[in-house]
Specification:
The chain is an alpha+beta fold and 252 residues long. The protein has one domain. The protein contains 8 helices and 10 strands.
Amino acid sequence: MRIISKVRDYYDCGQAYGQDPDLMYLRRPDEYHLLAGDQWIDRLEDVRDTMPRSGRTPTVSRFIIGFCGKTYPGYRFEAGWMEGDRFKKLERILYHPLDFKDLFRFKYVQKAYPRFFEKRKGRLSLWGRMQMSSTSFQAVNQSYVAHFETDEFFDLFIETNSPIWIYDPYLTNRFQDPRRKGTFIKINDRLEPYDFMRIVDPYTAYQELSMFVGGVLRREAPIMVPISDESMLRKKGFHEYSFKTRPKGDKQ
C-alpha cells in the first residue's frame, strides 16, 4: 500500500519493506461533523462518561481513537508548575490503568501537587482530586476492559470511509457540551502526537492499515478518460498504414 500524504506519521516506515503499488491510502486530514442529537455523539459520550476525569490542575482529559475497526480510549494528563522563575509543564498520554502509576517517577509533579499524590489509608491516591476519588481506579479498569480494543464503533469507520478517526472534544471544543452543540471527529489525522506507537508498533500498524483499506473500506474506481481510436493509434506508435499496404505511387 502506498501512503499519499503531505505529513508523516510513525507507521510510514512500513512502506520500506514492500508495498502494493495498486493499493493507495490518501491520508488527507479532515473533519467529520456530528450534529447535536446524532447517535454517534451519544454513544461516544457514553464511553467517555465511564472514564474518570479531572477538570482542575492537574487536568486529566479523555479521548477515543478509532483505528482499523477498533477503539482505543485514552487519557491526557497535563500538569504545570513554577520552578523558581521558570514554568515547567508535563504532558503524558495514558492508555492502560497502570500507566498512571508511572507518574510517580516525576518528583517535580509530586512536589508541585502534594495533595494529588498524598497517601490515604496507607495507599497512594493518584485520583485524590478527581470526581470519583474513592472508586476512580476501579472505574478506569472497568472502562478499559469494557471499551479498549473493541469493535463497537465499527460502523463509524464505514460511514466516514476512513481507517483512522479521533474523538477529542477537549481540544476541539472543551467549553461546549457535544450533546447540545454538536462536535466533530478528526479523520485521517496523525497518531504520533497521541503516542499510539505504544499500543500498535509501526510495522503492525502499517499491515493493519493495508488490510483494512484494501479489504473493508470502499475504494473509488479510477476515472477512465475517453480517448478516440485515432489518438490511441498514435499513442501506441502506429499509423493508418501499419496494417495494410500503401497505395501504389503513394510516397511515405
